[in-house]
Amino acid sequence: DIQMTQSPSSLSASVGDRVTITCQASQDIVNYLNWYQQKPGKAPKLLIYDASSLETGVPSRFSGGGSGTDFTFTISRLQPEDFATYYCQQYDDVPRTFGQGTKVEIK
Amino acid sequence: QVQLQESGPGLVKPSQTLSLTCTLSGASMRNGGYFWSWIRQHPGKGLEWIGYIDYSGSTSYNPSLKSRVTISEDTSKRRFSLRLSSVTAADTAVYYCAREGEDGQGGFDSWGQGTLVIVSS
């Protein structure tokens, strides 16, 4: 299985802050990497696919980058509705695997 | 806009078989080349992919669950199902059905709301 390692596991930030999360794959996954947002009691929501493509309807303050084994996810200016848990996920191979999640909390 | 809805028992006894159904609206399983997955989330934990059935009816399962999992389809009724046998308390989780992009590309772009299944006697 391809292991996905996210960091940090949690962070505290203020509205307006720039937030960056990293995700490292245990092997080269090219750009087959997606990012999701999950709020308590809700299903995950796809934000970024193919490492850097913004899903339709997702605000442009969200962005992604990277290739190979190292990837980043950035929120340029954190908004109140962005406090949630974020997951990366690879689809280079089966089984599909997710990072352990990064919880973004209010400072 | 596709919508997915999980249904099934919320309580299953240990050693029995967990059975869930995902019903589609606004889409057909055989159109568009999509993959149809089951994903679960243990309480307070991360996401675990269980497996998928694709637009041709082919399946793929997580090796960690493969001996106990069956995903099947009922295309005429626009639904697909999950069966997980010999359940234990470790199978207690929220179970989601989700659509993955065409040919398995582009992420899980549509999800059901999730259904909590508790394994307990």
Structure description:
The complex is a heterodimer of chains A (107) and B (121). Chain A is mostly beta strands and 107 residues long. In chain A, 0% of the residues lie in helices and 50% in strands. Chain A has no helices and eleven strands. In chain A, the strands form two sheets. In chain A, strands 2, 4, 5, 6, 9, 10 and 11 form a seven-stranded mixed beta sheet that branches. A four-stranded antiparallel beta sheet of chain A has the order 1-3-8-7, with no helix packed on it. Chain B is an all-beta fold. In chain B, 0% of the residues lie in helices and 51% in strands. Chain B has strands at residues 3-7, 11-12, 18-25, 35-41, 47-54, 59-61, 69-74, 79-84, 93-100, 108-111, 115-119. In chain B, the strands form two sheets. In chain B, strands 2, 4, 5, 6, 9, 10 and 11 form a seven-stranded mixed beta sheet that branches. Chain B has a four-stranded antiparallel beta sheet with strand order 1-3-8-7, with no helix packed on it. The chains are: A mainly beta (107), B mainly beta (121). The A-B interface holds A 1, 32, 34, 36, 42-46, 49-50, 55, 87, 89, 91, 94-101 and B 37, 46-49, 51, 60-64, 96, 98, 100-101, 104-109, 111-114.
